[in-house]
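User: I'll paste a sequence; please echo it back and then give the predicted structure.

Assistant: Echoing your sequence first, then the prediction.
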Amino acid sequence: MGTRSYIAKQMGSDQYLTIYCQLGGYPEEAGATLVKYYDTPEKVDALLALGDLYDLCEKLSPDPGHHDFAVPQPGVTLAYQRDGGCTGWEATMKTLEELRDWELDGIEYIYVYSMNGQWLYSPARNPEVDLRSLKEDLENDMVQYSRPPDWEELLGMGRGAEQNLGGLSR
């Protein structure tokens, strides 16, 4: 299971062109990669044009030769459409509220390239944490982390689970 994230570019006051990323969603991984390698609107646009990702890496495009899910080139981003032959995995428009709906895709982190050209982030499971400067938090060792899921609550196994299971005990 990966650390899932949304990567988005702010397009308007509450409009974000968004892709999903399956693996490596922690700020020190995906966040640092975004800050270091996807630091211009053109690079962000090229990243979003790939659609949903399996893994974000420093290189956007593979060198000539073979690159797919079975045999990926080292350091090259893996995209479901380009590298897996999947359809329907294009970037979509979302609102900030939709980005924060972590239960939908199991999202743990949100990354937003703002209209003023900086990367912002927020842990999706901590709604009280506003979007923050990703670069500043990485540089100052102030990263805000997502709370782990409460699996019992998610599975409906909270207090009184025995009643929920028809009197069966664990």
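The chain has a mean pLDDT of 88. The CA atoms of residues 14 and 97 lie 9 Å apart.
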